[in-house]
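Researcher: I'd like a structural prediction for the single chain below. Treat it as a standalone chain; there are no partners to consider.
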Amino acid sequence: MSLLTVAAIYFILWWTVLFIVLPLGYRSQREDGEVTAGTVESAPAKFRGGRVVLLTTVISAVLYAAYHVASTYFGFGVADIPVIVPDFK
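Model: Treating it as a single chain, here is the predicted structure.
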């Protein structure tokens, strides 16, 4: 597998995991009881961008490593995923 393919798979995986990680630990300003003037109540009270990026990177690396092991050592590929949609030919 070329380096560009690895980077593309990891990039797509990273962005997908980012949207899963973003709401983890989220507290709104309304829940905290301190709404900053000029913001909506549902805005995050404390946005921890570094934590989100680090957690996303770690989870993505673990998932990519699992994919790499499954495809390299066990021969698992996209063609091995069962098709659950009926064939309408």
